[in-house]
Write a structure and sequence with these properties.
By secondary structure, this protein is an alpha/beta fold. The protein is built from 19 helices and 13 strands. Among the domains are: 41 residues; 95 residues, Arc Repressor Mutant, subunit A (Orthogonal Bundle), CATH 1.10.10.
Length: 449
């Protein structure tokens, strides 16, 4: 490496969307670089021409930008270490292969070029997984014997260049890390078995070996492997569902990292300050979408009303700002807004059966709600404060608790047993509509006993 500066990298293959696991790898590399005043490099491993797509590449880049994971070098931020697409680096790989040709480290096999693995053990220390000692000359590559129906050992010397002249993952991965002066490699635990091959290549090329840290997997809450079909598996889903990028970054950071205290809501600056290898977990993480939603709700609640409205307005086409603002204390992601507002905006919203059943057993309450609605029908001006005062006065006059009126009043006015703050909700519905809704539902609920 030419520099002692910390340089990390994220090297995705554009064969699909940016999923949570890939986003976490990018985030951890970005955080470690920021924590150490280093540099974060993005390169695209697009050598799989059959599976790579421009759409996937764009989605990965856009996902990283949405998460605010800005790269110091990479696509759009060219430097002397580029280009940053492997498909554009063929001549660089050819140059490094020439350094190995003529030695006993590489040889031709049916038009392909193989790297001869060392016979001795390869020892290295992984910052998360600990000491490793692997002999790749005996583990080799696995192959399937179709005739015998068994798995067999094949040639342990792995191919680094195909017969068509294109290079394979192990070789280009190492060459790019050398050329880009990568000092630390943080990647998924599934790459741990590749590391001895990479170290062998670093040694063959007489280049310094970076520090390795292999991050345990992210599993579903039930311990199963995450699928592309799972809700929350792709970063684009969070953007479309109205999550805040800061909250998603916060939650993903907790999938394998901990501040070593009870905090769950941390700013990005706080995470950067605390992020190091000692805080990384050694066991697999469990992905909990409900917890992610809860955390996003905390972030939304902390916004000013103006900030909230700016983000919420695109998710509700019919409501006024006054009505949308009612959802802020309850919403967990912005795509919920229309569902939360439907009982407010829809005069014919169907009454929830369980809520109706809960209040229908007390006809006296029905009479009180009907009497209260008559009083509300003449209330002017129709404001949340006046509505609250009127209901309080009615409760005092009839010597009943305010709480005993609120639930049945909500059910009769909105059709549901829970929702946005009731007084401003009634104000938003309007006097005429509120009284009409109460009368219709009271008659139906208490007639159907």
């Amino acid at each position: 490496m030419e520099s002692s500066k910390v340089r990390t990298r994220f090297a995705p293959s554009p064969t699909g969307y940016l999923h949570v696991g890939g986003a976490r790898t990018a985030l951890f590399n970005w955080l470690y670089a920021k924590h150490n005043d280093g540099e974060f490099i993005l390169r695209i491993e697009d050598t799989d021409h059959e599976r790579n797509t421009e759409e996937s590449c764009d989605e990965i880049l856009n996902g990283l930008k949405w998460l605010n994971l800005d790269w110091d070098e990479g696509p759009g931020k060219e430097s002397g270490n580029g280009p940053f697409y492997q498909s554009q680096r063929q001549s660089i790989y050819e140059e490094h292969l020439k350094k190995l040709e003529g030695s006993d480290l590489v040889y031709e096999d049916n038009g392909a070029v193989r790297f001869k693995v060392p016979s001795s053990d390869i020892e290295f220390h992984d910052e998360i997984c600990g000491p490793q000692n692997i002999n790749i000359s005996t583990t080799g590559n696995r192959a399937w014997d179709k005739e015998k129906g068994i798995e067999i050992e094949s040639n342990p010397d792995f191919i680094i260049r195909r017969p068509d002249g294109t290079f394979l993952f192990h070789f280009v991965n190492v060459i790019d890390d050398i050329e880009m002066n990568i000092s630390h490699v943080l990647r998924g635990e599934d790459h741990l078995s590749n590391t001895p091959k990479h170290i062998a290549l670093f040694n063959a090329l007489n280049c310094p070996i970076p520090v390795f840290a292999h991050i345990p997997l992210i599993l579903n809450e039930d311990g199963s492997k995450m699928s592309k079909r799972d809700a929350g598996a792709g970063i684009e889903w969070y953007k479309n569902e109205g999550f805040l990028a800061e909250s998603v970054t916060n939650y993903i950071a907790l999938l394998g990292w901990s501040p070593k205290d009870d905090r769950e809501k941390l700013t990005t600056s706080e995470i950067i300050e605390l992020f190091d290898f000692d805080h990384l977990n050694k066991s697999n993480s469990r992905f909990d979408l409900d917890k992610c939603k809860w955390l996003n709700g905390q972030y939304l609640s902390d916004l000013t009303e103006a900030e909230y409205l700016e983000k919420a307005l695109p998710f509700s086409s019919d409501a006024t700002e006054q009505v949308i603002a009612l959802t802020q204390p309850r919403v967990q992601h912005l795509s919920e807004i229309e569902k939360i507002l439907e009982p407010i905006l829809n005069d014919t919203y169907p009454t929830n059966r369980d809520a109706s059943k809960k209040i229908s057993t007390d006809p006296e309450t029905g009479e009180r709600i009907k009497e209260l609605s008559s009083i509300l029908g003449s209330l002017d001006p129709w404001t949340s404060e006046n509505i609250k005062t009127t209901i309080n006065d009615f409760a005092d006059k009839n010597q009943i608790k305010m709480g005993s009126l609120m639930f049945p009043l909500r059910v009769c006015a909105t059709g549901v047993g829970h929702g946005t703050d009731l007084m401003p909700t009634l104000e938003a519905i309007g006097r005429v509509a509120t009284v009409a809704r109460i009368k219709e539902r009271v008659d139906k609920i208490y007639t159907d006993i």
